[in-house]
Amino acid sequence: MGTNGSTMLEPLRQGLPPLDPSAVSSAASCALPARYEAVGSARQFTRKTLASWELDDRFDDIALVVSELVTNALRHALPGDRTHTEVHCVVGEDSPVRLHMMRWTSRLVCAVRDPSDDGPVAREAGDTIDDFASESGRGLFLVDSFSDGWGWHPLAGALNGKVVWALFQLA
User: Fold this and answer.
1) ∠ CA 48-142-107, rounded to 5°
2) If you compute the radius of gyration of the chain from its CA atoms, what whole number of angstroms results?
3) How far apart are CA 53 and CA 26, in angstroms?
4) Which DSSP state fits 32?
5) pTM to 2 decimals?
6) How far is the C-alpha of 35 from the C-alpha of 16, rounded, in Å?
7) Which of 2, 108, 118, 140 is in the most buried spot, having the most CB atoms within 10 Å?
8) For the segment 122-141, what is each residue's pLDDT rounded down to a tens digit?
9) Between 21 and 160, where is the model more confident?
10) 86 Cβ partners below 8 Å, 6+ apart?
11) Distances in Å between the alpha carbon of 74 and those of 38, 70, 113, 152?
12) Percent of the chain beyond pLDDT 70?
């Protein structure tokens, strides 16, 4: 779990809602391999991070959103041949997908960085109930339902890809 927030997270902040970067009280980051098993690693990382921040009571909603964001990154943002890396979280590892968590006094942001420049596409309101009930395509609906807001932004500078973030209000 990394806590070197200022440099590493600066490109992510460009796409986040307006929050004072100097007010970040905690930050953590986890490199994830290009395997679907990485979703479980992301959940474990989320559990440990939330426990260290004494936010265990928010685990269910936040872990669901993290799982969907990581799944979307793995499913839609990676080339098909990137599936050979071992599953674990290693700070500093050059990974195609990275989970960042940032905590402010009254807010928490979960952000997933991936190498694709294509933005996430939410289901249209006119989709059929069969489409809605299918496994694929429900992720952004769940992110929207369980977070207090979400969005995405292309990364600038030397970093390619995008960041998709979800915001949670804290009590």
Assistant:
1) 50
2) 15
3) 8
4) E
5) 0.75
6) 26
7) 108
8) 755 445 444 444 445 678 89
9) 160
10) 33
11) 9, 6, 11, 16
12) 67
